[in-house]
Prior knowledge:
The chain is mainly β. It has one helix at residues 29-35, and strands at 2-3, 6-7, 10-15, 47-57, 62-71, 74-87, 90-100, 125-135. It has a single domain (2-135), classed as Beta Barrel (Lipocalin), CATH 2.40.128.110. The N and C termini lie close together (9 Å). The relative contact order is 0.17. Residues 1-135 form the Lipid/polyisoprenoid-binding YceI-like domain.
Amino acid sequence: MVENGQLIGGTVEIDMSTIEGVDHRSNNNLIKHLKDPDFFDVKKFLFSTIAITRVELTNNENRKVTGNLTIKGTTQPVSFPAKVEVKDGIVKANGKLVIDRTLWNVRYKSGKFFDDLKDQAISDSIEFNIKIMAKNNFN
Length: 139
């Protein structure tokens, strides 16, 4: 939603089948594993959402976006910095969101839940690069 030329809220749907990594495009074993039930269970939970509840100005172009992120049916509050532009009814936003995956029940090889992993533990932090381009439908 846009009000007075500024993004104030809305819901963004994320197609989890589009997961890619910087060094791992969408068609390799790591990305395939991320889509499996061990991680995001994409066949069962094809879409995740971010419901934006607040957008605060931090400087001329940058905003602090706050909302509720739903992954695998679990919803948790999140905040992240983003560059937001609204022009001619088009909203563009770019930002980075870092989450603790275990808050969304993604526990595979997490040292928080499995004591015997040693050097097999996987970091609980996941970084998402967010790129949104959407038409404001509320003009």
